[in-house]
């Protein structure tokens, strides 16, 4: 199929992009890399009147580090992030997850913020941001606001961004020395959407895991450091809380079993690294 007719606008500055959103709002779809959006347009799952391309805005292509966050502008591609040594050192969970995101060709175009905005429940990057407790920065004509990730992704492919707002960056918390991280997923083929993805973090006192591919949004659960005989019960409770669903790729029962098996492997690995 081919997309329905639309007007194409390639913004040169943030101000230009924000002005377009202010004037046209819900008639606009924003494109940075287009790896998910173009497929949705071709299948007519979305039919915007205006396609706003922000990929050519230089001021959105940055990766900056502060004392608390590594921030990615909305123009930064997944390949650029993967090739940034600071990602491996400062946000190791993201560094572990990025090789699972699509393929080399799609990572060259797909963006960090675009993946988060798309809000697919099986997507790795939103899962990492949710597990770490990061933030999204959006801008409109009235100013800027910062949205905690748990408030940003509110449903299946649905976010809290208002029609007049432009996502300008994503903030990933910088790892502390005592923290350990691990990421894994099960998919039909490498590069496919995850059937279940598990991101985990441990600081010696608490253990946190994020689960993708099972609920409408990434599910994050934190416990005090789990003893070996507590892990199975904690994960079993989480698996039943999420429930899962049946589709052509896997059953709900299989998804729950993956939470139990992958979750235990991840928790044991990062807690043992602390010892």
Summarize the main sheet.
Answer: 5 strands, antiparallel
* Cα Rg: 19 Å
The largest sheet has its strands arranged as: 4-5-10-6-7
Class from secondary-structure proportions: alpha+beta
Q: Could you tell me the CATH topology label of the largest domain.
A: Uridine Diphospho-n-acetylenolpyruvylglucosamine Reductase, domain 3
The domain tally reads 3
Question: Total number of β-strand segments?
Answer: 14
Specify the overall morphology: globular
* Amount of helix: 25-40%
> How far apart lie the N and C ends?
55 Å
- Poorly predicted tracts of residues: none
Overall description:
This protein has helices at 14-24, 37-42, 78-82, 85-90, 92-97, 104-107, 112-118, 124-132, 149-152, 228-242, 252-274, and strands spanning 7-10, 28-31, 50-53, 63-65, 69-73, 135-140, 143-148, 153-155, 158-159, 166-173, 180-186, 196-202, 206-212, 219-224. It is of the alpha+beta class. The chain folds into 3 domains: 7-53, Uridine Diphospho-n-acetylenolpyruvylglucosamine Reductase, domain 2 (2-Layer Sandwich); 58-173, Uridine Diphospho-n-acetylenolpyruvylglucosamine Reductase, domain 3; 182-274, Enolase-like, domain 1 (2-Layer Sandwich), CATH 3.30.390. Helix 7 packs across helix 8. It is globular, with a radius of gyration of 19 Å. The termini are far apart. The model has no long low-confidence stretch (mean pLDDT 93).
């Amino acid at each position: 199929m081919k997309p329905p007719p639309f007007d194409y606008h390639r913004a040169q500055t943030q101000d230009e992009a924000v002005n377009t959103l202010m004037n046209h709002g819900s008639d606009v779809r924003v494109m940075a890399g287009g790896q998910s959006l173009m497929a949705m347009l071709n299948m007519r799952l979305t039919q915007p009147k205006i396609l706003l391309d922000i990929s050519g805005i230089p001021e959105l292509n940055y990766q900056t580090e502060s004392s608390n966050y590594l921030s990615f502008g909305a123009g930064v591609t997944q390949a650029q992030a993967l090739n940034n040594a600071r990602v491996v050192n400062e946000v190791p969970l993201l560094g572990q997850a990025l090789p699972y995101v699509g393929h080399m060709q799609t990572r060259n175009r797909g963006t960090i913020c675009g993946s988060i905005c798309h809000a697919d429940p099986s997507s790795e990057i939103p899962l990492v941001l949710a597990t770490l407790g990061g933030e999204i920065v959006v801008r409109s004509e009235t100013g800027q606001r910062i949205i905690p990730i748990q408030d940003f992704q509110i449903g299946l492919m649905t976010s809290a961004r208002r029609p007049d707002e432009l996502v300008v960056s994503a903030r990933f918390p910088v790892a502390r020395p005592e923290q350990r991280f691990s990421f894994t997923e099960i998919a039909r083929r490498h590069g496919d959407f995850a059937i279940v993805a598990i991101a985990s973090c441990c600081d010696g006192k608490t253990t946190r895991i994020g689960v993708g591919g099972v609920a409408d949004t990434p599910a994050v659960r934190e416990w005090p450091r789990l003893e070996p005989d507590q892990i199975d019960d904690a994960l079993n409770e989480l698996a039943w809380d999420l429930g899962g669903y049946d589709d052509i790729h896997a059953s709900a029962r299989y998804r729950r079993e993956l939470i139990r098996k992958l979750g235990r492997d991840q928790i044991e690995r990062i807690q043992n690294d602390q010892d």
